[in-house]
Write a structure and sequence with these properties.
This is Orotate phosphoribosyltransferase. It is an enzyme of class 2 (transferase). Pathway: Pyrimidine metabolism; UMP biosynthesis via de novo pathway; UMP from orotate: step 1/2. Helix content is 41%, strand content 29%. By secondary structure, it is an alpha/beta fold. Helix 1 runs antiparallel to helix 3 and helix 3 crosses helix 4. The strands form two sheets. It has a six-stranded mixed beta sheet with strand order 5-4-3-6-7-8, with helices on both faces. A two-stranded antiparallel ribbon has the order 1-2. It has one domain: Rossmann fold (3-Layer(aba) Sandwich), CATH 3.40.50.2020.
């Protein structure tokens, strides 16, 4: 238990050190107000923090028995790529819509009937942004049982994803970030 706490605290410290966590008055994309902002893009561009995220996520994923890791274009691409490299699992990228040129399609990577894909998210609030990706993957006959998020803002994503039969697995909860800053 102590090791898990130390790993989580190390990740929280890394998120703060790279500038991914800021405190103040912010308006979120949902329009809601918040006293803190989580910018995982900052963490994704910092190799030390990205490696910590990838290691922790890979450790969690090892117990899930999945075939590949997925990320929604564009925000989750660096995270999913780093986790794919760390875990050795194939990568699947999910576009927001079908590409009408080149080879077309909505997916980069293999999405096959019966394959199990864990999706990676940077920050979850309500879970709405990943919902469409889950439905697209399932429409191809693949299975999504879990979404791994770096930070869960604890604003309904867990419950909303549970209604789809999907478990939200946070590396860090917002309450842990805030508590460690007080």
């Amino acid at each position: 238990m102590q090791e898990s706490f130390n790993v989580k605290q190390s990740l929280i410290d890394a998120l703060k050190e790279c500038g991914a966590i800021r405190f103040g008055d912010f308006t979120l994309s949902s329009g809601k107000k918040s006293s803190y902002y989580v910018d995982i893009k900052k963490a994704s561009t910092d190799p030390v923090t990205l490696k910590k995220i990838a290691r922790e996520a890979s450790t969690v994923i090892r117990g899930m028995h999945v075939d590949s890791v997925g990320g929604v274009v564009l925000g989750s691409v660096p995270l999913a790529t780093a986790v794919s490299l760390e875990s050795g699992l194939p990568l699947v990228l999910i576009r927001k819509s079908d590409k009408s040129y080149g080879t077309g399609g909505r997916f980069v990577g293999d999405v096959r009937q019966g394959s199990k894909i864990v999706l990676l998210e940077d920050v979850t609030t309500s879970g709405g942004s990943v919902r469409d990706a889950i439905e697209a993957i399932r429409s191809e006959g693949a299975i999504v049982e879990a979404v791994l998020t770096v930070v869960d803002r604890e604003s309904g994503a867990s419950e909303n994803l549970a209604s789809l039969g999907v478990k939200l697995v946070p590396l860090v909860r917002a309450s842990q970030l805030v508590a460690s800053s007080e």
